[in-house]
Design goal:
The protein is mainly α. It has 7 helices and no strands. The mean pLDDT is about 95. The chain is elongated, with a radius of gyration of 18 Å.
Length: about 170
C-alpha cells in the first residue's frame, strides 16, 4: 500500500511541505554537480538557501546523496526512504509491545500501525516526520527497557535516542 503511485509527484499529502524538501534536496544535489550549466546550479542552490530551515535536513541530505549515486534527480527516492523509516518504526513498536503485552498484542499493534490509513499516506511523505516517528518509537522502547532493567547502558541508550528525536525535528 505504500508503493502505490510511487512515481507520482509528491503532491498527495502536504504538497507545500514536500516541495520544500524537494527544493532543498535538489539544491544540495546540484551544488555538487559540475556537468550542469552554472546558471542552473546557482539557481538550484539559491532556491535551497532561500527555503526556511526549521530542522536539520537529514532526509534531504540523504536523498541528495542518493541522487549523486544514481546520477539523476529521482523524486521517488525520498518516498522510499520515508517508507523505510516508517517500516523500521514498526520493528521498534513490535519490540515495545511484545515486552508490554506479549507477542499476540504486539502483532495486533503492528498490523494497526502498518495499515492505519493515515499512517499509510503519511509514511510516504518527503518530510522528516516518518524518520521522527521511527525515532520516537525506538525512544519509547529504550525508556521501557531502562524502566524494566535499570542500568547505565539502558539509560544512555534512552538518552541518545531521545536526543535523536530532538535532532531529527527540533520544532
Amino acid at each position: 500500500i505504500r508503493l502505490y503511485d510511487l512515481f507520482d509527484a509528491p503532491l498527495d499529502f502536504h504538497p507545500t511541505r514536500q516541495m520544500h524538501s524537494v527544493l532543498i534536496a535538489r539544491g544540495m544535489y546540484f551544488e555538487q554537480r559540475d556537468d550542469v550549466p552554472d546558471w542552473q546550479r546557482e539557481l538550484a542552490v539559491q532556491q535551497w538557501k532561500a527555503e526556511p530551515h526549521p530542522e536539520p535536513q537529514l532526509l534531504a541530505r540523504l536523498t541528495a546523496l542518493t541522487y549523486q549515486v544514481i546520477g539523476n534527480e529521482v523524486l521517488w527516492v525520498a518516498r522510499l526512504y520515508s517508507i523505510l523509516f516508517w517500516m523500521a518504526g514498526g520493528v521498534g513498536l513490535f519490540l515495545l509491545a511484545k515486552s508490554i503485552i506479549g507477542i499476540d498484542g504486539a502483532l495486533i499493534a503492528l498490523v494497526y500501525y502498518l495499515f492505519l490509513p493515515y499512517g499509510a499516506i503519511a509514511s510516504r511523505s518527503f518530510q522528516p516526520d516518518p524518520m521522527l516517528v521511527c525515532s520516537l518509537i525506538f525512544t519509547c522502547w529504550a525508556i521501557h527497557r531502562w524502566y524494566r532493567q535499570p542500568s547505565w547502558q539502558n539509560a544512555i541508550l534512552a538518552g541518545l535516542l531521545g536526543g535523536l528525536d530532538i535532532f531529527v525535528k527540533i520544532v
